Amino acid sequence: MTPKLAAALEARQPLLDQLHAEQTDAYRLFHGCVEGQPGLTVDRYGDLLLVQSFHSPLDAENLSDLETFYASEFPDLALVVNDRSHANSRIANPLEPDALAIAMQPRIAHELGVNYRIQARHAGQDPWLFLDLRAARRRVMQEVPGKSLLNLFAYTCGVGIAAAKSAASFVVNVDFAKSSLDVGRENAQINTLPIRPRFILSDAFAAMRQLAGIGQPTRVRGKRMPAFPKLEPRQFDMVFLDPPRYAKSLFGVVDLINDYSALFKPALLCTTVGGTLICCNNVAEVEREAWLDQLQRSAKKIGRTIRDVEWIGPEADFPSPDGNPPLKTVLLRV
């Protein structure tokens, strides 16, 4: 195990030097699926070292090697191990009280000068900041000054907070989970922001339809829909679309394999002519050119033109030897 960890750290050193100079201390140190230990990830978030195992629990020998290696390389970081090899990636390994207190401690990680709230363990499962989206957040920060941004499936609002920090004119974060938006509000509070982002607790379909001017009926096929906030039509200079692989509600179905268009069309209608729509697809088996072709055909069907296309690949702490990382992010000028 130790030689693999050492090789991964050495390969990242130029990137880490750059990130540290950019006020970033959140990055992946070991990406096991391509660095010799499938199912294992090691991430730094500020003063936290988060180890996660997805395919099988980390055995005692490998865990000892890992702890010894990182204690030498990063002696000031607290190490927490989450075994997520059980059903639905639920964290399965109990911790002793002292270790649990460390895992539950609120922390702050930094990325490109932006502060983000982090906890190794919380009521949910996933970390509060997805590190493979750093390249996309970086791109948003470059594009957004003076522009409005709609952040859909916002989770803990990392994209929206980065946009607000970069002098966006107006930022709206939409997510159906109050717990995620609460973390987003904390993220806003721990940064000095020139504007106040807006946080909307809503199903994304209901929000998009209203903002796009389509409207969201309160009754569909004779059935009353769940309550949702009423929104006035408004288009945005930038829209960021980062949906989960699959989700279903009375408002619609999110299915990144079979029907990305169901999301893409209303998101595009929320984007101003001459604006920018950034779309993400995190399903490994989706081939990116076929996905892009689907997006282009969907745009044509609603009378919108994609003027330019730019792929945004993850940064070097998420290596992809074949050039086809699972997370596909495309910037569309529309």
The gist of it:
This protein is of the alpha/beta class. The chain has helices at 2-21, 32-35, 60-73, 97-104, 134-143, 158-165, 178-189, 204-211, 261-269, 288-301, and strands spanning 26-31, 40-45, 48-53, 78-83, 107-111, 114-118, 148-152, 170-175, 198-201, 219-220, 223-224, 236-241, 246-249, 252-255, 271-281, 308-311, 328-333.
Q: Trace the largest sheet across and list its strands.
A: 9-8-7-12-15-17-16
User: Tally the helices: what do you get?
Assistant: 10
- The CATH architecture of the largest domain is 3-Layer(aba) Sandwich
The CATH homology group name of the largest domain: Vaccinia Virus protein VP39
Estimated radius of gyration: 20 Å
Give the structural class. Answer: alpha/beta
What is the number of E strands?
Answer: 17
Portion of residues in beta strands equals 25-35%
Which oligomerization state do the chains in this entry correspond to?
A: single chain
What string gives the helices and strands in order?
HEHEEHEHEEHEHEHEHEEEEEHEHEE
The third-level CATH topology of the largest domain is Rossmann fold
Task: Please write the CATH class name of the largest domain.
Answer: Alpha Beta
- The count of domains is 2
Overall pLDDT metric: 97
Main sheet: strands, sense, barrel: 7 strands, mixed
